[in-house]
Amino acid sequence: MPGQREEARRALVGLFLFAFGIRCGATFLFDRIGAAVGDPFAGSSDAWAYDQWARRLAEAWPRGIWLSLERWNQAGRWDVGFHYVLGAVYWLFGESVVLGRAVVALFGALAVVLFFPVARRVLGPRSAQIAAIAYAVWPTSVAWNGYSVLRDSLVWTLLMLCVWLALLVWEARWVAILPLGLSLVALRLTRPYAFAAVTIGLLLAAAAALGKGWRAGWRPVAAWAAALLGTELLVVVLGFPSLPRMTGRYASKRVILQDVDRSPAAAGQALVYPGSGLSPLHVPHEEPDGFVAPKRLFGPSLPANAARFLINPPAWAPVEGDIRTSDNWQLPGMWIWYLILPLCVAGFAAGLARRGPGRIVFAGTLIFVFFLVVAGRGDFARQREMVVPVFLLAAAIGAEIALARPRRMASVYAVYLVLFVAGIAYHRHTLRERGLVGSRPPAVSGQYEEVC
Asked: Tens digits of per-residue pLDDT, 13-22?
């Protein structure tokens, strides 16, 4: 009905403005904090690199120079999608860190809007509205959007877009095939392991479609396969490594259940693009000289990595010392995360038992989280933010169960509270004794600078 479509459109516009306004407020707050301490990037070498490469691209394009960053020894990475997006924004509207932050806030709001149609297909319209509003105000998402110029919100947007388009293909809306392929290319070039999450979901969806019979299931399977194969072909044509080559490169590093090397080989090196006439960039060290990395209570293992994925950063243990101003901003929101975890567990169990696309979304998310835990690489807090929307879907289902069986859920929370308080007490007791607290020296002036 036209009236219903117009009402739905107004609701999405209102949701976008609401989410964007909150994220713009966080952007302004963190920008003021960064200006006050003299560090516009909140101590993030990633944000500094994105900004500097974007400026290089915006400087090169008007001169007819196309900087191709697909080689590892140029930008120090293969996933350079955000470099180009930010470079295009700087080229069109001018170079500004505040503008970069605003772009991050924009993508964060778009992720909320794209989450709504996914939630509606899993939960129904009324519960989907509640879940979307919860995501719009989710504290850690807002904080990640605001504190620096990072690619995370673009990754969330592309993830939600890919999931939504894949669900449209599931519903036999074949017009979504081409946008799905292009979205997969963008995701592949922005964060490859997030692309792996969508691939897992598509494989599960293909198995579910074929389970209904070949005649009913071959069309969506063929569409998803075409999107994946087209993605790989286009990525290779653009000059980036194929998926087998990239996988082999990471496998050769033996990243599975290994401690993360905190001193990257590229740190302190100058990145030069031959023949461009542009000055080289100096890549800062991940940590200032003299940084003492905190020791872990547990070595790399599945249980330890799973615990880190669920609780890091510990809300009851703010990092001390002269640190990046953003390090403790996630902590207040973590208490809400801990609060909904039992609901999420109940929601995942119930969601996996349901029929329809929701089961695939939940199963694919759990498999993806398992791979993240097994690999144990990177910042679990950032990785967890990619799947927070699905956990909110599970929490909504868990809340329905809690309202239907309040006594049973109260018993679950009583046990959870005892275990949680005991865990906090044990962790706080061992923080000092086991040397789990690292310290950072004052920020080195000129840490983020260009080599002239």
From this structure: 999 999 999 9
